[in-house]
Design brief:
- It is a single chain.
- The protein has three domains: about 60 residues, no CATH class; about 230 residues, no CATH class; about 350 residues, no CATH class.
- It has 24 helices and two strands.
- Helix 9 runs antiparallel to helix 10 and helix 17 runs antiparallel to helix 18.
- It is found in: Cytoplasm.
- InterPro entries: NAA35-like_N (IPR057983), Naa35_N (IPR007244), TPR_NAA35 (IPR057982).
- Belongs to the MAK10 family.
Length: about 675
């Protein structure tokens, strides 16, 4: 050891620059170390130490604590009522940060009272200690108020964690962080026990003379909010609708009151500051480095909690709806509109509320799902449709109805649940689903070709199935703009291909509409979607025309990018089917058709505007929109705003030569529309 230090001292790096020599510090620290002894820390094995040199173990880079060690914390230090409120508000803010996808070690677990719950139990304290406390800082604020609220916080974490862990579609680390760092979160404590403790805390605050009158309502509102959140997470949404609504209203009232109050302020030397240790992950069994997450003002916390409550309210509204199409509409509007993102817990709850692994909507079978889905699209249940096919079947082989049902059971459920995934995972699901939809389409063609009766409902089955597949294909291409996946040279083809997919989709609706009763909800819904698709197709064509100059002239640059971007459309599974997939991406057709368009871009925009204006004025929002009609109208108004933004596009084909899309178009899916650009003034 000494020889190594001598060699290091003989040639110090940075000698003569502003470096400080720390050789003596290392020499002093290593005096008591034996070269034959291995030193290990809790939760850090020899394998971890060996891997650290290769991959860079984060725990080796958490910073130096200092000679004094971690900051001291006295869980029984008396607190003022406003200090308790400040701690509870900050703890709730960290809970919302965890709900947003951050680590427990960086959020909830920074609350140091979590590790001292046994120290602040009233049962373990002497009566004299409880009665001789400072009258301005009664110890009951810790033992009777703060303690139960911390238990309620941990139990909320436990219930949230369980729901997310049990849901296969909300993936760990992509939507939420499941690492609990081996910290107990009251897993074995009954929820009712914690609720009773919170009830007792609320009664104490309301009646005890040791609580100042000024702080009774602020403390009580925070206790009731925690109790409401805990009961919401513990209530069966599908069966206890009345109780669930009452809890939502109670939580909403608490938030409105707390948001109306001025922010709680405490002194800089307050003991409440020691209640949070942002560097707690140094002492936890975790593999993540320290990360200090700053909290915004209390108003931001109340807004996040309100978003959580309103999202739970929407899920409750959905559980009262027995129409899969309405679930689909609500899910897509969540993706299309720029609302506050739903927490992972809410999206998981929506998925399990629709399908709990055994039943649909907690009461229906798979057969009901197919019957309802086809009834909402065609006006005929799948059971009646299958019976009509069997009654007119003349081929010696049985109709492929079981094969169709096997695929449809999976698709009908997954397409609804997938709409509550995060946008990237939703796009990946859509890419996989188009293969399954084409398989069903292939079977449906066999049925239509065998029956050969244009008046038979089965003759429309291929068009019905194709419409589902084309819907998914459109979502795949448009979501690429929302996720900012397309490079500038890829955008022209993306808009052109989206328009082609929409045109094929409109043809399906044109074929289906005559078979629907005009006073029925399936007719209203199909007509609405057809009109919206016409507007979308016109907008895509307009933007495609003005972005043609962005296409590279080098064919070797275009083709590899095209093959990577549309590999989902050329999967080998398609070879198992006899029918060719509809509207496959075709780069050669795209390049050949560049000069085929004769209408100027502005006319396409004006056509889209006329359709959208008519839809908004008529109040037509589709047949199955239900309570989501205002959101659908807001979606239409968003497309109308795009028409206004694109009103300055060239009004002639010749004018395209003077339009520079790189300078005059701006794509901003965060602050603007998720799919389309806006015309901006070119820089001078």
């Amino acid at each position: 050891m000494d020889s190594v230090l001598d060699m290091a001292m003989s040639s110090l790096p940075g000698d003569g620059i502003a470096f400080e020599d720390v050789t003596d510090l290392f020499a002093q620290a290593s005096q008591d170390m034996n070269s034959e002894t291995m030193y290990l820390m809790d939760g850090f094995t020899l394998m971890d130490a060996m891997s650290a040199f290769e991959i860079g173990e984060p725990r080796l880079d958490t910073g130096f604590v200092g000679e004094d060690g971690p900051p001291s914390f006295n869980p029984l230090a008396p607190l003022l009522p406003e200090e308790v409120c400040w701690i509870l508000d900050r703890a709730l803010g960290y809970e919302m940060e965890w709900q947003a996808g951050n680590m427990l070690a960086h959020t909830v677990f920074t609350l140091t009272y979590i590790y001292h719950l046994s120290d602040i139990e009233t049962d373990s304290m002497l009566p004299a200690f409880l009665t001789e406390s400072d009258p301005d800082r009664p110890i009951e604020l810790i033992t009777c108020v703060l303690g139960p609220c911390v238990q309620g916080l941990l139990k909320c974490v436990d219930l949230t964690w369980r729901d997310l862990q049990n849901n296969d579609l909300i993936e760990d680390t992509e939507d939420w962080q499941s690492d609990r760092c081996e910290v107990p979160v009251l897993e074995g404590v009954p929820v009712q026990f914690v609720i009773e403790k919170l009830n007792w805390a609320a009664r104490f605050v309301a009646t005890s003379p040791r609580v100042p009158d000024k702080w009774r309502k602020p403390l009580g509102a925070r206790i009731l909010l925690r109790k409401a959140l805990l009961e919401l997470l513990n209530t069966n949404l599908c069966r206890l609708h009345v109780k669930y609504q009452s809890l939502l209203d109670q939580a909403r009232d608490c938030i409105l009151y707390l948001k109306s109050q001025p922010p709680v302020e405490i002194s800089k030397d307050s003991a409440a500051h020691s209640a949070f240790d942002p560097y707690i992950s140094r002492r936890l069994n975790t593999s993540v480095p320290v990360r200090v997450i700053p909290l915004g003002p209390p108003s931001e916390t109340w807004d996040r909690v309100r978003t959580l409550i309103e999202s739970l309210q929407e899920v409750k509204r959905l559980t009262l709806c027995q129409n899969p199409t309405t679930w689909e509409i609500a899910g897509k509007l969540r993706v299309w509109l720029k609302d506050a993102p739903r927490p992972a817990y809410v999206r998981s709850l929506a998925q399990t509320s629709f399908y709990n692994g055994l039943l649909i909507l907690d009461q229906y079978s798979f057969t009901w799902t197919l019957d309802q889905l086809f009834a909402e699209v065609t006006g005929h249940t799948w059971t009646n449709l299958a019976a009509a096919i069997k009654a007119t079947w003349k081929s010696p082989t049985a109709p492929p109805i079981p094969q169709i049902e096997r695929h449809l059971y999976k698709l009908a459920i997954s397409q609804v649940k997938s709409l509550w995934l995060n946008p990237p995972r939703l796009r990946r699901y859509m890419m996989r689903s188009v293969v399954d939809w084409h398989t069903v389409y292939d079977f449906s063609l066999d049925i239509a070709n065998t029956i050969r009766d244009e008046g038979h409902i089965a003759a429309k089955l291929p068009r019905i199935i194709a419409s589902f597949r084309l819907e998914a294909m459109r979502e795949i291409t448009l979501s690429g703009f929302q996720l900012e996946l397309y490079a500038p040279p890829e955008r022209p083809h993306a808009y052109w291909y989206t328009a082609k997919v929409i045109e094929a989709h409109i043809e399906c609706y044109d074929d289906i509409l005559p078979t629907l009763a005009k006073d029925s909800k399936p007719y209203e819904e199909t007509l609405y979607r057809q009109r919206v698709l016409l507007a979308l197709s016109a907008l895509c064509t307009a933007v495609y025309l003005v972005t043609i100059p962005m296409i590279p002239l080098d064919w070797e640059e275009v083709q590899p990018a095209f093959e990577r971007r549309y590999k989902w459309a050329f999967r080998p599974e398609y070879q198992r089917c006899r029918a060719a997939p509809l509207v496959q991406p075709d780069l050669y057709e795209f390049m050949r058709g560049i000069d085929d368009e004769n209408l100027p871009p502005r006319e396409h925009v004006q056509f889209a505007k006329s359709i959208l204006t008519e839809l908004v004025a008529s109040g037509c929002a589709g047949g199955w929109v239900g309570q989501w009609a205002p959101e659908r109208v807001r979606f239409l108004k968003g497309l109308l705003s795009i028409c206004e933004n694109l009103a300055a596009l060239p009004d002639s084909i010749e004018g395209l030569e003077f339009f520079d899309p790189k300078k005059e178009l701006k794509w901003d899916p965060v602050n603007g529309h998720p799919w389309f650009p806006a015309v901006v003034e070119p820089p001078s």
